[in-house]
Amino acid sequence: MFSHLACSMNRNNYDAINIFPLEGETWLLSKDWDMNWCPHLENNKNFNYKFIEVLSNYVDSIGVHVAYLVKAKGFTCLFHRARDPFLVSAMDMFRFSHRIPSMKMTGMERDNVPEGSFELNPSSLPTYQVDISASSIDQREPSNFMDSVNSAENLIGSVPNKVPEPEFYKFSAERSLKKFKFGECWVIYSKKMPCPVTMGK
Predict the structure, then answer these.
(1) Strand pairing of 156-157 and 129-131?
(2) In Å, what is the CA distance from 155 to each residue of 62, 124, 133, 151, 199?
(3) Buried b (16+ CB within 10 A) or exposed e, 68-103
(4) How far is it, in rounded angstroms, from Cα 101 to Cα 87?
């Protein structure tokens, strides 16, 4: 099953495709990413993540500016920015897990919807632990990447047994047949993975 279209870049003459976070997207950021996680998928459940909003495009040797997202009270999949932005350095780019498709809210959709918040696609949320609580975010300005993520506490499972329907945006419309074009790169769901990270072109 297809999840969402990926914006890919071929930065060399080889077949490798590069996927970088883009400004305006929402992603999962690993707290304790391990180089050995791919060969040992059963250990993936032990890794902790946070939702983030990407505030700038990737720049070589610099990285990406991001901000934490926390769950809006009274909503299932609505998240808003929690604190000031910080930098994920180019050396830490592998801590980006995968993109979570989302729709940015205007605040006019319904009462109590925060302006600038994001509705995340419920079917793309991971089954492992994600920190969604505002209380776990350190209020001081992070001096570096590790300072900003080591404060995460109160981790909970992000998805109930039954995947809820989105409240505001019909994400399935983005996967209609008319949306597919030759040469595109799509993210695909896989039974072997707890989240949509498998790629297909």
Answers:
(1) antiparallel
(2) 29, 18, 8, 11, 28
(3) bbbbbeebebbbbbbbeebbbeeebeebbbbbbbbb
(4) 22
Structure tokens at 51: 């939702």
| Domain boundary assignment for the chain | 20-173
Q: Which of 167, 133, 128 is nearest to 45 (CA)?
A: 128
> What are the distances in angstroms from CA 91 to CA 1, 22, 27, 140, 188?
32, 17, 17, 23, 27
β-pairing verdict for 49-54 and 129-131: parallel
Q: How far is it, in rounded angstroms, from Cα 17 to Cα 35?
A: 19
The answer for residues whose C-beta is within 8 angstroms of residue 27's C-beta and 6 or more apart is 21, 51, 52, 54, 66, 96, 97, 98, 99, 100
Encoding tokens for residue 165?
Answer: 């329907």
For residue 132, give the nearest of 92, 88, 76, 55 by alpha carbon: 76
The per-residue pLDDT for range 16-40, each reduced to its tens digit, is: 667 788 899 999 898 766 666 554 4
For 57-67, what is each residue's pLDDT tens digit? 999 989 999 99
